[in-house]
Amino acid sequence: METSLKIFNSTSYYDAGQLLENLSIKETTREPLECKQEINSNGLFDFIIYGVLMNLIGLFGIFGNAISMIILSRPQMKSSINYLLIGLARCDTVLIIISILIYGLPVIYTYTGQLFDYKFIVHPKIVRFLYPLSCVAQIATVYLTLTVTLERYIAVCHPLQARSFCTYGRARVAVLAIVLSSFLYNLPKFWEVDYYAEVHWKYNVTIYCIYPADLRRNDLYVTIYVHWMYFFICYLFPFLALVIFNAAIYQRVRKANRDLQQLSRHQRREIGLATMLLCVVIVFLICNILPLASNIHETFFSDPPHWLVQTGNLLVTINSSINFIIYVIFGRKFKRIFLKLFCNSKLFRPGRDSPEFQTYDESIVTNMTNIELRNSIRHYHVNRSSTINRNNNVSNGSMRQSVKISARPASPGPCVYYPARSPVRSPSQISATSSTQNGWSKKDVNSSL
């Protein structure tokens, strides 16, 4: 008696059950027929989806995520939200690499006959480790996206709590906790897959075939852990939270756009950042609709259609590869630094448009402390220069004349008059000045020169 049993199923990242779509296992010999199949009825469709589109999009995603991590890791970019985005880019990169190794490369042999050694020797040995790691990276990506949304929700809707809650240290702890929790949750998956050796029926060489381990063949384990727990932990809870938080952010952004003239510069940047990350979450939800439908179909009905699983896997790869484009389109400072680092530097003129001018600013998010520091430094230099010029003019007896010919506008603050001071004053001059009834006089000024 033969029973159809997929090694993995659509509840796993990229529907790992589609590794061997037509896998059929004999309970007595555990002999998967895929090892003897040279022709797949879905070969052309799989080759286009996996062999062409997934590989090309995945390569672009690796390149884009690498650039994103380089830009977001620059010293002037240090912030809590940027650290979360770096963690998200790392997990997306892991997902893309694993998707190419598990799906993109093996399907090339199925349609073209190339990469025989990889499909039957390398792939069966590495898939037992890559499959659990892909599940770890997938859940980490979901909850990092949720954490980014939560951070923006606090920054936009509860700005008073943002400075104490949205810190760089908390972001590091959050990323570490998410990755560690995801690894512990997916630890049983390391014992779901195994392989064995046999002689290829056509070429008479030793090959390796994948089959599900005893744990994966347990019906109770599959029903509770693989189906229901995965559905609630990876889909239902995070998706509902994303919808609720982003609905609140969207309402705040709409209200801010109506009252745009009343917002400070910092508030406008926070709203702009929230808008950009709102696009990231919307793309995430759209690209995960088909995998969610596939999971629901398998949990409540039966195995999902082949095209639904393959298309959903491709959309997940697109989601992991597209964030770089969103950053470039909506992140004004991100795009500015990207062009400065990787394109012609002549595009920038010296001054405010140059990334070097933004030394204490960030590419995507503006830290309130840095803004206050930069403003205080600027005001300090303006006041100091104003005081020095005023003292020099008083010392030269030309205060009124210099005011008339000066091109510098008056300080917006109150004017405070100080006694004229010279670089070096003797004790006798100090005592003479303090003993004057009016505090200071023209005689005192002349005597101090």
UniProtKB/TrEMBL annotation:
CDD domains given in the database record: 7tmA_FMRFamide_R-like
Subcellular localization, as worded in the UniProt entry: Membrane
GO molecular function: G protein-coupled receptor activity
Biased composition (Polar residues): 425-440
Signal sequence annotation: none
Record PROSITE patterns: G_PROTEIN_RECEP_F1_2
Domain G-protein coupled receptors family 1 profile: 64-327
UniProt region (Disordered), positions on chain: 418-449
Listed transmembrane segments: 47-72, 84-109, 129-150, 171-188, 228-250, 271-293, 313-330
Entry keywords, A to Z: Membrane, Receptor, Transmembrane, Transmembrane helix
Record bears the keyword Ribosomal protein: no
Highest rank taxon of the organism: Eukaryota
Main location group: membrane
One GO location term (cellular component): membrane
InterPro entries hit by this protein: GPCR-Ligand_Int, GPCR_Rhodpsn, GPCR_Rhodpsn_7TM
Similarity annotation: Belongs to the G-protein coupled receptor 1 family.
Protein name from the UniProt record: FMRFamide receptor
Species whose genome carries this gene: Bombus terrestris (Buff-tailed bumblebee)
